[in-house]
Design a protein that fits this description.
The protein is an alpha/beta fold and 264 residues long. The protein has one domain: TIM Barrel. The strands form three sheets. Strands 1, 2, 3, 4, 5, 8 and 11 form a seven-stranded mixed β-sheet that branches. β3, α2 and β4 form a beta-alpha-beta unit. It is globular.
Length: 264
Amino acid sequence: MKGKKTSYAFKAGIAFIGKSGVILRLAYDLHIHTALSPCADNDMTPNNIVNMSILKGLDVIAITDHNSCANVEACTAAAADKQLLVIPGMEVETAEEIHVICLFPDFGKAMEMQNWIYSRLPAYKNNEGVFGSQLIMDWQDNIIRKEDRLLLVSATITINEVFRIVNQQLKGLAVPAHIDRQANSLISSFGVIPEDIDISCVEIRNRSREALLEEHHPKLKNINKIYSSDAHYLGNISERQNFVEVDEINAEGVLRALSVYRED
């Protein structure tokens, strides 16, 4: 992908000045699908996503298609020279049918994870009439090709393996997705927050459920929460309402902020 070097000039506001310097507040949506995900609208193209995110006042987004990073590079290139940071990501479905948002410091690490996941996906061919199309695009929204392998399936990789590979080997961040949902979530599958998984951040879809979740699962009180859209349609991308406090405006800064455990 060709594109100019991005220069960020965000709406980010100063939250406070700490020991390490200025802390910035970035408006985020860290769970967005493109037209590569078969369940997403075909209007979820790189430029449409980038421009809608900017219109909504966001500073940072993550592209998190099901079991693939194939449209991440195009979205990053579409945001070049615009006031938007794009974090490489994907939404892995584990062997336990748990969805995990995987965020990476750079595109190379994301592609390493994609290779891991592709090697663990069953060889089911996508049926567009049933599941929808899986479009791989360039930075100008041209369709390069269609992904023939069905992405909307469980990979033969456990959630423990996902956390080990993403957090330890690839220096990224694994985030259990939509833990308040009744399907494909950590709590709906296990019933508890596992003690043997080092979780520093979870995603909650409905913020009003947070207090009840913490009451039933006290461990969540010391875990960061993100509140993202899981957008499959342009209009569902988050407004400028959720913020992360960072010490530098890049993927590493965001991942570092979400990796720090909260104090009581």
